[in-house]
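Technical note accompanying the year-one report. For the benefit of new consortium partners, we illustrate the data format agreed upon in the data management plan: each record pairs a sequence with a structure-token string. No post-processing was applied to the example shown here.
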Amino acid sequence: LQALLSHAHVPSIVPTASAGDNVISDGNTLAGVAAAVIPEGYELKPSSLHDGLVVFVSRLLRPIWYKPAVVVTEGRTMQSKSRRFGYNSQLPAKVELLLDERTLDEVRQPLYALQSLMKDVFSPAVSVVPGVRKDGSTENMEVDEGDSNGGQFITMAMQYQSQVARQNENRNQGNHRTKKELDSAARLAEELNMHSLYRLVSRSVQLLSLLSHLRRAHITPELPEVEWGMLHGLTHAQLATTREGQQRIETLLNNLVSTSNLKPGSEYDENSSMEADSLANLLSNQCYLFFSSGSRLTYLGFRAARSALSYPRESPRRIALSNQAAIYLRSAAQYWYSPSLITGRLLHRDEKQGDFESVACMAMDYGSPLARAASVLMELDDVGGVVDVCLVCASNFGGANARSIGSQDETGDDSKDMLPWERGLYHRPLGSPEENMNIDQDDGIHSPTTPVNTSGTSVVMSGVDVTPADALRTCHAIIFYYINILLVSTVVDSYKLAERMVSVCASSSDINFLYSLYGYLQTSNHLDTLLRIDSPALESWLKDVKRDQPGLLWRYYVVHGKNSLAGDVMWKRACTANVNVGLDERMECLTRAINSFSASLEGENTTTLTGRRITTANSFATQQASFSRDEIERIITQINEQLDVAALQKRTLTTIAQSHNVDLDDSKIYNLSHSLISVSDLYNDYAAPLNLCDICLLILQTCH
């Protein structure tokens, strides 16, 4: 082995005859991360050991690579032969796993042995990402992505390395390369290719293990049904190397660990729990590249929730398990990055986004783990947990940061075989939430050493283009859906839960979510609930977003006992010029202003509109406007005078409307009907010129 490593593992870089092209020894264009470290005008001659390993891996994978893993055949429709009773029945779908357990093991064993050998022998290329600084965090490692220049990169860290290499190449163009520099570049390129090859072998081994475990789960009656339709028609190559395959598998696993046949009040099946625990442990240890930390936390959360449902209400054990379930599910929501997974629209027809209720129902019907988590927490009456889980998930798609404070040390997802750079690999978003909102990602991604399908078979697509904005809307829709159910319920306890849920929502720091919440409560006939929320954000929303509806702000101030502020709002509304407000509405605003200022003067803090305020973490103490008692009395007197003049103005307008011989400009009639006119203008411009003697006498009496 040492002789083999000494003589066969010696890559080299030599000048190429055609300058400007980076090629390997057989003349094919050099693709992948290795091309980034090869100087222009040179070619890489991989070592014989590398070429032998590539050929060996190809031969091991060739029997299964382009074969579908699962084929699901729809059941036939059976027609009744009875003439009297005609009916049709659908036979169950037939699931055909093309590789039996023995074949899976025969293919997996040599691949696993090769993986172990590469980990031991090629430790510099496998234990770390070659070319990445040792102080670099593994957080930079992502799923393989395509580069704009044609290269395929394993990680973002390696992409960064390639960009640095290109910059150095541009600076040193025309410079002579020393033998030491060329040997170093050749060694790095070889290690990068070895690293890529190891990833391909590792994912293939874990994929075969995953299929084996799913096969056992399929025949185990205590476990939920495996949704084989998610993998229908996908080849092993697509499952191992494409993002679409990764997404399908993650969706299948999330559905598997979040599905339960346990009903409220039923006995907790210990045997089913043991089988599920065993499956989850196997997936965590042997298939961690597919069964993510989020899937593991999802399973633990639903397991605790199902156990809690088996205990009576108000039981201390039920409360403890419910809290534990909420902690696990909040932590799991941090890993739910797939928009189609959250909306539940993977492999389903592309339905148009409707109102919040239809969006939430679609997520529930199509098996969204977020919808299922919210449902089981609602069964436990943990409305705060529902809000937390949804908002934590929403932060993955552009919502404000609402990360769970739960420790990730509770997950127990670290396999003894997991390398440091593999932690969380393939289970992170493609970019920041802001980037995800604007960038379309490629579905078909291959590593440098992955065989490319040249048979003409296209990558299976979901057929649904689900955006992060859709997922964000779904997160909010699920919260609003349950708020509405609780508010319309006739059960007293439900209304208390609704108030608690609204209070938790209103305590959020996500201003966009808060504005969506306020708008939903207003449009869904829950205005009284909305106005009882004690929050500065709601006051700002009423002032800025709903400034064309000052009646809402007035009611908000009245509900919270801020009568002087309520009076000031109505007074300004009545006196504001250049707005299309009728005279009747202005008079009503003046009347409301007098009542509010009078209530403030008398020290009232409640009215018929006032109910129990919904406090939040941002609630503030009731504050009145800075009006002294003398100022309020003066304002009330002034408003009363304005109201008396407005009454005369209303009478004048009625007399003019009933008269057929009045010659008056349309502009004056509009001003008379849509503004508060001063008493002098009313006398000089209307009453006197039109010989309205009774109005003139009333004006003189009012002014006296």
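Partners are asked to follow this layout when depositing records. The chain is about 55% helix and 5% strand.
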